[in-house]
Automatic annotation (TrEMBL), chain A:
BP term (GO), one: cellular respiration
Family matches, as InterPro entries: 2-oxoacid:Fd_oxidoreductase (IPR051457), THDP-binding (IPR029061), TPP_enzyme_TPP-bd (IPR011766)
Name the UniProt record assigns to this protein: Thiamine pyrophosphate enzyme TPP-binding domain-containing protein
Domain Thiamine pyrophosphate enzyme TPP-binding: 57-209
Pfam families: TPP_enzyme_C (PF02775)
Any GO MF annotation of the entry: thiamine pyrophosphate binding
Keywords linked to the UniProt accession: Oxidoreductase
Domain of life: Bacteria
TrEMBL record, chain B:
Keywords of this entry: Oxidoreductase
Species, as recorded: Guopingia tenuis
InterPro entries attached to this UniProt entry: 2-oxoacid_oxidoreductase, PFOR_II, Pyrv_Fd/Flavodoxin_OxRdtase_N, THDP-binding, Transketo_C/PFOR_II
Protein name: 3-methyl-2-oxobutanoate dehydrogenase subunit VorB
Pfam families hit by this protein: PFOR_II, POR_N
Domain (Pyruvate:ferredoxin oxidoreductase core): residue spans on this chain: 247-340
Domain Pyruvate flavodoxin/ferredoxin oxidoreductase pyrimidine binding residues, every copy: 14-187
Source organism, top-level taxon: Bacteria
UniProt entry tagged with the keyword Oxidoreductase: yes
A GO term for molecular function: oxidoreductase activity
Amino acid sequence: MAVVFEKTKMLTDVPFHYCPGCTHGIAHRLVAECIEEMGLQDKAIGVAPVGCAVFAYNYFNCDMMEAAHGRAPAVATGAKRVHKDKLVFTYQGDGDLASIGAAEIVHAAGRGEKISTIFINNAIYGMTGGQMAPTTLVGQVTTTSPYGRQKEHCGSPLRMSEMLATIDGAYYIERVSLHDVPHIIQAKKAIKKAFTYQMEGKGFSMVEILSTCPTNWGMTPTGAIEWLKENMIPYYPLGVKKEGE
Amino acid sequence: MAKKLMKGSEAIAEAAIQAGCRYFFGYPITPQNEVPEYMSRRMPQVDGCFLQAESEVAAINMVYGAAGAGARVMTSSSSPGISLKQEGISYIACAELPCVVVNIVRTGPGLGGIQPSQGDYFQATKGGGHGDYHLVVLAPSSIQEAADMVMEAFDIADMYRNPVMILGDGMIGQMMEPVEFHQPPKREIPEKTWAATGWDGTRERAIINSLYIEPEVMQVVSDRLQKRYELIKQNETRVEEYKMEDAEYCIAAYGTTARVAKSAVNKAREMGIKAGIIRPKTVWPFPSEAFCKAADQVKGFLTVEMSAGQMVEDVRLAVNGKKPVEFYGVMGGFLPTPNAILEKLIQLKEGK
């Protein structure tokens, strides 16, 4: 019988620990498929964050490092400076990248560090149980913003892609979403482009992926998809924020 | 190789290069800026990489990444900066990564001052970061010894897959002395088959990690680390004894303080006081045996430190109440004078 579909070899057989309806699984698969399709199996070194994707080292079937909270871009810098010919990527959530690791991501981009960052923005801290993230929308209820995030009290959410796009060393920054199939296909294209630019030695690249967290948003998986479309995309517009020098 | 007059910080940097270190990540802080400055000049000459990080926090995590990728790597800083690195050092210890961390100690707590101190002894030897771990901590008392220790530090780190700290007080960083570079005695150093270098399937997949969520696994890792520390204690404890053969009074001191203590001991001997020195060259592992043994010989101990009294606790543990252990400390960035130490020795002798 002809094989029409196979799981990518760049994912191990370890079952994901992610909640039902969470889009981390899709993001993992896209990253893994890109590595395999680009023939970079033996060249990939991934850096996992602290947060929901903390166990990513169990899933990506390549050499992996697990970084301290927010420090993945610094860890990736160390690895990439040693192995200049390898594909070094970080996989980070919004708390990890936009809050505690804000300095590390800004300066990795500033140095034009030849690494790629997959940035999962689901507007909440997932692993710790649904606290407010720097990307939580104004009015959004979380366990540490029980009355909804108030702008007067803790400001507005950060648009990391737009911020990083102002940095010279950032070569390619795109925001994508996983809320439907056409957008998933677009997300994969963006990841592939980020990896391609890295292997060409162009500079820092990041793909911000708008994702859902049904568990901590308190929604059904389909309800979460709708919420992402209606609330996140207007605040976090999709598209290429920077490409080229 | 002819001896060359070098500043301590520069000798430390050159020793790292001579030991094959090709990656250095650091952040400026006084009084150790000559280390990163020297590295920024030297690394490009040897195809190495000097990178000024955005913070000490980033620097130590770059060290984690480079060490995890299999490279010989070093960072250096001074007390407040070393505090910032503690999170990363704890992760490095648990992930079993070899690297060298240099601390040119200044006064504290807080921003403190930029003059010499030994106030980071507790932090260096008792953990510093969270969790059950130890660094191997080498404490040089001359520029030559600093160079020798740095070169050996990389071998020790690689041999045990454990971070090694060079604990030098501000004097060691700033003073100039003649120095030459010798390769340390050859050791059997295992290949870094665990490093993340890109996986071609011919070995186990490399996972550089310090997260062990299952208690059963964490216990295994903890036991492995503790067994390794025991091995390090057996193999790597270093101590220097000075005029201890017939000593009736023993000074315990390390680093620059031990050099001042030598002058005090010589003066004491001229006065007929039989004094000697036990100088820990490794402050972790601490040479407890040397003190334990001396406790059966001498009438009393005097611990001298540029701190409020930190190593003195380890001396007292080793002496275990057999003999009195007195303490003399100076703080604020001052060094003890030989006369002040001598005076304390006389007081010890007279039982005051």
